[in-house]
Amino acid sequence: MRELPVAARWYIGGTALGAALCAAPAFRLGAAAPWSSLLALAALYALCEHLHRCPLVGGRIPYGAGAAGTSGGSLTGWASPVLLAGVFLLPPPLAALIAVPGALTGAAKAPSAGARRLWHAVEPALACCAAAEVFRVLGHHPLSAPQFPDLLLPAAAAALTFGAVLVALEGGVLAAAERHPPRTAWRGALPRSLAPQLVHGLAGLMMAVLWRSAYGPTAALLVLLPMCLSCWVFAQYHRERTAHQATIRALVQAVDIKDRYTRGHSERVGRASVMIARELGMTEDRVEVLRFAGILHDVGKLGVPTRLLRKDGPLTPQERRVIELHPEYGHEIVRGIGFLGEARAAILHHHERLDGRGYPYGLMGHHIPECARLVAVADAFDAMTSTRSYRRARPVPVALEELRRCAGAQFDPRMVRALAASLDRYGWQPDLVTAADPEPGTAGEEPGDGAAPGADATPETGQPAGGRTPDRGPARHREAAARDGAR
């Protein structure tokens, strides 16, 4: 534990002491206590913890911590019902011991593998003891035979207590060991854990009922089969999602390497796209697709010759036409990536204008896909609020005013209003990811990254980088805008 901060050592040590005090009364229960049930449940939990790492089952499920779904623990979706079955079957001190053997003998990541094992043992111990105490207080003796439907409400209360204790402990260890800000360590964790805990609680109650039935503990194992299947499906989904994220990262990194001038722009456009989509009440699945669209909107720059992206000086009409092909290049690059869905249309059409003066096809009004109209606003907003080598970032209110001025002709007014409403509610904290060290002579910007989004926008004044002079202001801005696809 020496690698851990002092606060984390005290926190884990204090939690371990609390777990030991909870379990200590177990050794005074005598031979009448259901020790055989404890040993069977502990062995089953340890088996689940080891089996879920088996490649045939689906490998290690990257499930965060525990049944709460927070970060840092070890409980899996089909081990949690075993613990909750023990909550319903055993006295609180015995319930606290179920996870200890499996956690102490299980694998743990370095560094501080010993501390992690200890934490994985004491965390569910406290949660099980608290949940079993709630179940007992609500009038159900753990040694009695559980019966439906009287046990549903007490079981739900116990399961929610189990999840709440896990969330509380996990937030504390995140703040102490990983130094998360206290205001974010617990944010949103409890609501996310409610539904999983109720499902695990129902499965645990079914196990407990079968355990005490005439069919015995063997029948209780049948409950784990659907849980095992659902966790295997979850593991496959997570692998697929991880592969999707890796694909997105690879494409974005390729664009950033080719055009370092605007690194970070794609991620910010993705974030702004999410803000607009959520303000419009879109479903989370669609919000995720639009995030992909924002991140990948300029992937077509991979097909544009680097010399054009970095050219210092006026573009010829032919070079301008090549620049304006980047949406089509981007669409070709991602056309075979099925999970992107409508994001592909956004990549192709995010430079169209409502008045038909955009490219590549000159679409007008609602002929432009909604996703493309959304990304266009996010793109232009980040362009104006990001610092460039030849101009400073515009304040958010100034950028919004420019978007409103261009709404109806260039941008969808509905998207502009949604962005403004979301910014009023949440604000905007750019990561200050700018091209502070562009290569000499770099003039390009992201599409929509001109000094202002409108076709007649006034360029910023002042000494630009790359050897430009102020007297080239309008021409310089038009060339930078054209070179990088500004509207």
From TrEMBL:
Residues 431-487 are annotated as: Disordered. Residues 469-487 have a biased composition (Basic and acidic residues). Pfam families: HD_5. Residues 262-384 form the HD domain. Residues 435-462 have a biased composition (Low complexity). Keywords: Membrane, Transmembrane, Transmembrane helix. This is Uncharacterized protein. InterPro entries: Cyclic_di-GMP/3'3'-cGAMP_PDE, HD/PDEase_dom, HD_domain, HD_GYP_dom, HDIG_dom. The chain crosses the membrane at residues 82-106, 118-139, 151-177, 189-211, 217-235. It comes from the Bacteria. It comes from Streptomyces angustmyceticus. Residues 240-435 form the HD-GYP domain.
